[in-house]
Amino acid sequence: MSWHLFAGLCLTMMSSQSMAWLFDSSDKGPAKPYVAQSFQDGVISIAQQLEKNMEMVPPNSKLMIANFVSLQDLNETSSFGQLASANLMHELQIRNWNIMDPLFTRDLYIGPSGEFALSRDPKKLPSSLPSFEIIAGTYQATTDSIILNVRMINAHNSSVLSTAQVIFPKSQAISSLVAQPSVMPILSLTK
Questions:
Q1: For 9-67, what is each residue's pLDDT tens digit?
Q2: How far apart are CA 8 and CA 147, in angstroms?
Q3: 3 state SS for the chain
C-alpha cells in the first residue's frame, strides 16, 4: 500500500475534530491552563508544573508550603486552600523534595483526645528556622471554576523560582471547600 493511500485511509477514518491537531502548526501564544479532572488530579498537576518550570534551586534547599489564600484577601484561606497545600506537601515529598513542616512543634503532646505534634500556637513552635524556599498560592472563584495559581519563592530575595496554574471546574465538593473561610491565629515565622 502506498503512503498516500494509507494517509488518505487514516484521514477518512478520523473525525475532523480529532485531526485538527494535524493542521495546527502554530506554537505561538500562551500555554493553556490545566483543567483538573478531580481535586487530586489538579494537585498532581501543580507538583508536575512546579518541577517542570523550576529555575535553579540551591542544593540542600528546604521548602515550606503555606496555605493557599483567597486572591481577594491574602489573610484568608478556606478548606480548599488548606487541603490543596497539604496534598501538595505529599505530592512533592514523594518526588523527593526536601519539605519542612512549619507546624511541627518538635514535641509530642499527649492529651485526653489524642497525641499531637502539630500546632499553630506560637509558644509551641521553634523560635528559628533554617534557610528555606516557600510555596505560596492564591485562588479565585469564578462562575464555573476555581483558578489556583501557585509559585515557589526564594524567602530571602523574593525571586520566583517556579510557577503553576490549575483550573478546578466547580462541583459540589469543590464549592463546599471554598465556601467557608477557616479561622486560624496569625503567626509570623519570618521577618
A1: 444 444 333 333 333 444 555 667 889 999 999 999 999 999 998 866 666 678 888 88
A2: 42
A3: CCHHHHHHHHHHHCCCCCCHHHHCCCCCCCCCCEECCCHHHHHHHHHHHHHHCCCCCCCCCEEEECCCEECCECCCEEHHHHHHHHHHHHHHHCCCCCEECCCEEEEEEEECCEEEEECCCHHHCCCCCCCEEEEEEEEEECCCEEEEEEEEEECCCCCEEEEEEEEEECCHHHHHHHHCEECCCCCCCCC
Phi, psi at 147, each rounded to 5°: -100, 125
- Take residue 158 and report the three cell numbers written for it: 523574593
Confidence of residue 92 (pLDDT cuts 50, 70, 90): very high
Residues 174, 146: contact at Cβ < 8 Å? yes
Q: pLDDT (tens digit, 9 = 90+) per residue, 171-184?
A: 888 888 888 655 55
- Residue listed under C-alpha cell 515557589: 152
Neighbours of 136 (CB within 10 A): 17
